[in-house]
């Protein structure tokens, strides 16, 4: 019995940190607080701030569709955490300062590669993945 418990604990430790750390519930709360004003409550790009923005917010539900059916995980992470600045936000993301910074976790991305980002970004991206149109 002890060997089985030890084996399952070791297997869990071998999983990429990002896989274990994803929490779509927290990601949804983050989205509602920081993203919905521009991208809309349903992520359609039609938030209440849309009329005053110089660049229309993107419909975040079609990220996978616009990428040949595969969610562009690495690109989305890099845009949210600031490594790939978004002109629509005026400055590199995050526009909310240190919120998206913090304890880094490893997230497994396309082709088995890994990327380090904050837990908040991992959760937010997990939520965005869940919203993708089928």
From TrEMBL:
SUPFAM superfamilies named among the record's database cross-references: Cytochrome c (SSF46626)
Signal peptide: 1-21
Swiss-Prot/TrEMBL keywords: Heme, Iron, Metal-binding, Signal
GO MF, any single term: metal ion binding
Domain (Cytochrome c) ranges: 22-132
PROSITE patterns named among the record's database cross-references: CYTC
InterPro entries, alphabetized: Cyt_c-like_dom, Cyt_c-like_dom_sf
Keyword presence, Heme: yes
Protein name per the record: Cytochrome c
């Amino acid at each position: 019995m002890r060997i089985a418990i030890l084996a399952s604990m070791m297997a869990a430790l071998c999983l990429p940190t990002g896989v274990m750390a994803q929490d779509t519930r927290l990601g949804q709360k983050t989205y509602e607080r920081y993203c919905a004003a521009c991208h809309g409550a349903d992520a359609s790009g039609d938030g209440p701030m849309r009329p005053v923005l110089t660049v229309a917010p993107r419909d975040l539900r079609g990220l996978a569709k616009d990428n040949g059916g595969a969610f562009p995980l690495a690109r989305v992470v890099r845009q949210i955490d600031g490594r790939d600045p978004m002109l629509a936000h005026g400055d590199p993301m995050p526009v909310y300062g240190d919120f998206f910074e913090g304890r880094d976790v490893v997230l497994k991305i396309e082709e088995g590669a890994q990327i380090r980002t904050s837990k908040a970004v991992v959760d937010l991206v997990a939520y965005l993945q869940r919203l993708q149109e089928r």
